[in-house]
Amino acid sequence: MNRTALLLVNRHARRGKEALDEAIEQLKSSGFDLVEESTENADRIPDIIRQHADRVELVIIGGGDGTLNAATEGLIDTRLPLGILPLGTANDLARTLGIPTALREACQVIAEGNLEAIDLGWVNGKHFFNVASLGLSVKITKQLSKDAKRRWGVLAYAITALKVLMGSVPFSAEIRVNGESRSVKTVQIAVGNGRYYGGGLTVAEDAAIDDQQLDLYSLEVDHWWQMIPLLPAMRSGTHTSWSWVRSMRGQEIEIHTRRPYDINTDGEITTKTPAHFRVIPKAVSVLVP
Question: Which residue blocks in 113-213 are alpha helix, DSSP H?
Answer without folding.
Answer: 136-143, 146-152, 154-166
